[in-house]
Design goal:
Length: 369
């Protein structure tokens, strides 16, 4: 008989296991706690840099967003709502593609091309009657954004290319096209002066209200489309498993092309709102990186339009409030980005603990024969 040997099995110190479905209220409690901790950390960092108290830091952030709201001066509030609406529009645009697991990182370029189309109509078709000109501007922005979105979809559907790299590279192509157009129209100055024709109408005394209402309508339509329509169901199935989708008779290529048409079209609307509704001009920095921020907003919003709206409001609040802190206390201009990054880091981290549990190994000896 062979001698019995005692061996010790070493297991990893930490075990990471996928959780069962957590109660929604618990998950949201964790997220809210993460946001509060992140805000506290931002306040502490600001205190260390400025020497001011937490109360002064947070009140400065509120003034940067809402201004002197209670004194009748609401221009900053309108600006905040407008910026939130634009980011929300871009977040809504990438959501159908992301839900399908088509990683559309080209919202920046698709929105920029939509804005370019609006600008070209405003400059070259300004002689048209105003109602007709508006129709042409909206149609051209949607069409160009949709075309810019469907190009990578065609290559993905028929040649299985990498959509992430494809859409990223198309951003740079869009930037160069816009830069060249600005160079031509600006006669080498690199600037197109604000154009008076083709601007979106104002409602009351607010230039921003129409933009906000358009995006709110888009949010409601997108929620209904993704949750209750047949096409929304097909997007969900394709995102979960393309093989399953094919098995039950869904044309996967058609769904990819159709979804990216919608994604690009909504990006085109965002570009039109920025150009025709806000800036009345265009340049390579018109979107200002919001297309990339929209990727994180959509993911943090769990592809739910209403939660995406809340995430957009939070991110813009941080950028505006932290920017005011930086201006007031003479901090570096990148402080707003640092503040947003802290909150995003905490939100991403809490999602890990919502979905997975971490268990510590207990000391144990096992004997084998």
């Amino acid at each position: 008989m062979a001698d019995m040997q005692k061996t010790r099995h070493r297991e990893p110190l930490l075990h990471i296991a996928k959780r069962d479905d957590m109660a929604p209220w618990k998950a949201w409690l964790i997220r809210l706690t993460a946001i509060l901790i992140a805000f506290l950390l931002i306040g502490l960092v600001s205190m260390a840099l400025t020497g001011e108290g937490l109360g002064e830091i947070y009140s400065t952030m509120l003034r940067g967003v809402f201004g002197r709201l209670f004194q009748g001066k609401t221009s900053l509030l309108w600006t905040y709502l407008q910026r939130t609406a634009v980011l929300l529009c871009l977040g809504l645009a990438v959501t159908p593609a992301f839900k399908m697991k088509f990683w559309n990182c080209g919202a920046e370029g698709q929105a920029l091309m939509g804005g370019l189309a609006a600008m070209m109509c405003m400059i070259h078709l300004g002689h048209l009657p105003y109602p007709l000109l508006l129709i042409v501007i909206v149609g051209a922005s949607i069409l160009v954004g949709a075309v810019w979105g469907i190009i990578p979809a065609i290559f993905k559907a028929y040649y299985n290319t990498n959509e992430t790299l494809f859409t990223l590279m198309m951003n740079y192509i869009a930037i160069q096209i816009v830069s060249y157009y600005v160079y031509l129209v600006g006669q080498g100055s690199g600037v197109i002066q604000p154009v008076a024709t083709g601007n979106l109408p104002t409602i009351g005394n607010s230039k921003q209200l129409l933009n906000i209402l358009i995006v709110v309508a888009l949010m409601i339509v997108m929620f209904i489309y993704l949750k209750y329509s047949k096409q929304g169901y097909e997007i969900t199935v394709v995102g979960e498993s393309q093989n399953t989708a094919r098995y039950i008779g869904i044309n996967v290529k058609k769904v990819i092309l159709r979804t990216m048409l919608i994604s690009g079209a909504v990006c085109g609307i965002a570009g039109m709102l920025l150009v025709s509704g806000i800036d009345h001009s265009v340049n390579a920095d018109t979107i200002g990186g919001q297309g990339f921020t929209a990727i994180m907003v959509s993911w943090l919003g769990q592809f739910n339009p209403y939660i995406i709206a809340a995430m957009s409001a939070l991110i813009v609040f941080l950028e505006s409030g932290a920017g005011k802190v930086a201006d007031t206390f003479f901090l570096n201009g990148s402080f707003a980005g640092v503040a947003s990054g802290i909150v995003i880091l905490f939100l991403v981290g809490c999602e890990f603990f919502i979905r997975y549990s971490v268990r510590i190994r207990r000391a144990r000896k096992e004997e084998t024969v």
